[in-house]
Amino acid sequence: MPDATVNLYDLPRPALDARLASWGFSPQYRERVWTGLYRDGVTAPGDVTGLRPDLQAVIQERAHLGVLATHHESFSSDGLTHKLLLRLHDGQTIETVLMRFKGRATVCVSTQAGCAMGCVFCATGQMGLSRHLTPGEIVGQVLHVTRVLRAQGESLRNIVLMGMGEPLHNYEHTMAAVDILVDPKGLALAPRFITLSTVGVVPGILRLADEARPVQLAVSLHGATDAERAALVPAGRRWPLNELMDACRYYVAKRKRRIFFEWTLISGRNDTAEHAHTLGQLLHGMDAHVNVIPLNPTVGYDGGPSVPDAVRAFQDVLTSHGVPSTVRQRRGIDIDAGCGQLKAAVERKPRRSLPVAS
Ligand code: SAH
Ligand code: SF4
Fold it and tell me: Which biological process annotations from GO are given for this protein (predicted)?
């Protein structure tokens, strides 16, 4: 592995330009490299076409592309969800999920290997944090699925930063990746189709608002009182609901955008009419939309998903508060497509299949 060389996917356009300029590339050749990486989708620096031979030699010698290898993959029974476990250069593995709705493919991307936030029902939280991903490792996931889609004549529309990890705990690298993804001369993904989901890292939300980052924001609530929320989401102790909701209101006012809230529905735990009323009151007067997600059970947590009647009743109460909501089924439950679940399952297998001493 050419560790001494730079992974070009790590560099947003201005940084790549500066690097290439220092290597003697004129603006025209710098643009050629960018479009080679993100329009043509080359998989090695030497494959960028249209460069002078001396420049091609330089780039081959000093750079590499962090193309991610498939460690494991599976498809849901309906074929619409393609779950990938991708391997990083240091052997870490991360999850990327490609979901196909009619004509609009969506990729769910990881921002960290593991997660430090410890939400009790989340398979990634149960693993702890290994490390942040670099911008190139985030971009590399998108490029990976773009290649899969391209081979089938399809293209990518939506990106959800909802895979493993907490994107606002890895703010700089996540935003560098977003800058690369939306560059009009590269992948040119539409910012309004990029959704960042956070557990509620207040300083990160304020920064997103101040920096006018063009992503859609989704905030994971799961509890509408501090005590109930903190029991599921330990980060709720660090950033209590009054601070979190102030940050959300600031975001809405500054960005003039609606916020999405996520609520994982756990049977008997946070899915009663009373819970829904408390949530409705919390969101009163705010431009908010709630996505309710019946729990995808994980090995490390004994809760179960809410039954369909409870889900409907929960939504009815929200409607009575004027709060719109949508049920999001976690797709591909049959292939461990919940956050962190494929990695947990794949890495459990060796232990499961240990020979029994006779
Ligand atoms: N760290 C970010 C983004 C990744 S998790 C966040 O927490 O928002 C994306 C969403 O999936 C979150 O709303 C999270 O609470 C939810 N989630 C995680 N594990 C789940 C599970 N087992 N069942 C249902 N939703 C889950
Ligand atoms: Fe981390 Fe999000 Fe999982 Fe919580 S739900 S542990 S923040 S990945």
Answer: rRNA base methylation; tRNA methylation
